């Protein structure tokens, strides 16, 4: 029984990766955002309080992907984008293999007809895998973002 339980995180990570076909690493995203040229649309699909604390500069709050009201926020944000936009979703609320937000968000965007959707793999948390690595962050503590 213990070997089965020990393998569970790996199984869950593979299941998430199976739904999220295109995965990028934080280092790749940071390099792409700091380089000249076209940049992907960054959408944070985790809890809003985390977005307000620290998020990737220029990223959009897309609603918490695991909640129906979050998916509605994502739909509204995505409706303003071209279907051929390159989109990178990220969360970072918890370890990648436990994240409840990415798969529903990816599925919704694909259902809406977006074809260039990727997910940034955050192995542990946004703080550890982005902020603590020295990648840029900004805060959004205004009342409008509290929805």
Core attributes:
147 residues; alpha/beta; Oxidized Rhodanese, domain 1; 5-stranded parallel sheet; 6 helices; 39% helix; disordered N terminus
Number of helices: 6
Computed over alpha carbons, the radius of gyration is: 15 Å
**Name of the CATH architecture:** 3-Layer(aba) Sandwich
Assign the structural class, choosing from mainly alpha, mainly beta, alpha/beta, alpha+beta, or little secondary structure.
alpha/beta
Q: What order do the helices and strands follow? A: HEHEHEHEHEH
Largest sheet: number of strands, sense, barrel closure: 5 strands, parallel
CA-CA gap between termini: 43 Å
Fraction of residues in β-strands: 5-15%
Task: Give the strand line-up of the largest sheet.
Answer: 1-5-4-2-3
The proportion of residues forming helix, as a percent range, comes to 25-40%
Instruction: Quote the average pLDDT.
Output: 86
CATH superfamily: Rhodanese-like domain
The count of domains is 1
Describe the structure.
- The structure is a single chain.
- This protein has helices spanning 2-19, 26-34, 48-53, 68-78, 102-111, 126-129, and strands at residues 23-24, 41-44, 60-61, 86-90, 116-120.
- It has 147 residues and is of the alpha/beta class.
- It has one domain: 3-Layer(aba) Sandwich (Oxidized Rhodanese, domain 1).
- Helix 5 links the parallel strand 4 and strand 5.
- Helix 4 crosses helix 5.
- The longest helix has 18 residues, at 2-19.
- It is globular.
- The model is unreliable at 1-18 and 143-147 (pLDDT under 50).
């Amino acid at each position: 029984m213990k070997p089965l339980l020990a393998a569970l995180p790996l199984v869950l990570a593979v299941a998430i990766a199976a739904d999220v076909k295109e995965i990028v690493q934080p280092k790749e995203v940071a390099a792409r955002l700091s380089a000249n040229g076209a940049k992907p649309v960054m959408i944070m699909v985790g809890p809003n309080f985390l977005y307000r604390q620290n998020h990737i500069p220029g990223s959009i709050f897309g609603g918490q992907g695991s909640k129906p009201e979050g998916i509605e926020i994502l739909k509204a944000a995505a409706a303003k984008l071209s279907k051929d936009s390159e989109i990178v979703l990220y969360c970072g609320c918890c370890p990648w293999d436990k994240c409840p937000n990415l798969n529903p968000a990816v599925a919704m965007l694909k259902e809406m007809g977006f074809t260039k959707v990727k997910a940034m793999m955050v192995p542990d948390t946004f703080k550890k895998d982005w902020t603590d690595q020295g990648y840029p962050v900004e805060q959004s503590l205004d009342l409008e973002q509290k929805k």
